[in-house]
Amino acid sequence: ALELRPGVMHWPGYLDRPAQEALVTALREVVREAPFYTPCMPRTGKPFSVRMTNCGSLGWVSDKAGYRYQRTHPETGRPWPPMPAVLVETWQALSGYPHPPEACLVNFYGPGTRMGLHQDRDEEDFDAPVLSLSLGDTALFRIGGTSRRDATVSLRLSSGDALLFGGPARLAFHGIDRIMPGTSTLLREPGRINLTLRRVTRP
Ligand code: MD3
Ligand code: FE
Description:
InterPro entries: Alkb, AlkB-like, AlkB-like_sf, Oxoglu/Fe-dep_dioxygenase_dom. One of its GO terms (cellular component) is cytoplasm. Its EC number is 1.14.11.33. By secondary structure, the protein is mostly beta strands. It has a single domain, classed as Sandwich (Jelly Rolls). It contains two helices and 13 strands. It has a seven-stranded antiparallel beta sheet with strand order 1-2-11-8-13-6-3, with helices on one face. A four-stranded antiparallel beta sheet has the order 7-12-9-10, with no helix packed on it. A hairpin with a 2-residue loop joins β1 and β2 (8-11). The structure holds N-(carboxycarbonyl)-S-(naphthalen-2-ylmethyl)-L-cysteine and fe (iii) ion. Fe (iii) ion binds next to loops.
């Protein structure tokens, strides 16, 4: 693994092609039980361009009332489907954290989709790292420091890459500037899926 900045570890191509295909198959089952929905911004209700779903005991949601973790899908009202075992195993292999992940947010980025620079601070446990897995088209990812004014660096995230954010990087600003269409043949539809595995509560 490469340490990009303090607390940011990158494993390019961590998942080989067969492992990526198996993960996509498992995710199609997740999405059948918990369809992608379009979250919207607190207060304004402006829709996100990224579509989302979750698996695991808790899922991250955003609507007019705010950002939060909850046990059920905001549209079906059903509990989130279980996390595929391969995700729990990847967390055990890479996170260095001695408790299992509780939430896996599944983000779908169609061509032209962005995610503005933000911090992830809706979790109670900032001691646990966040693990990201990328599938499908390459994304231009940007990460800065813990102040919005800090300098940022850009990184291409390709299908199969794993990234871990912990310690001093756990509250770093980060975002997705663009998706590069046609850079992967993994998915049937153009775009990118990102999985973020997290611990939400204190163990
Ligand atoms: C750095 N997702 O869901 S993953 C998010 O590609 C999110 O879907 C992006 O930002 C995506 O909140 C980026 C990389 C990532 C995830 C969590 C982080 C970077 C992070 C938490 C702290 C610092
Ligand atoms: Fe984030």
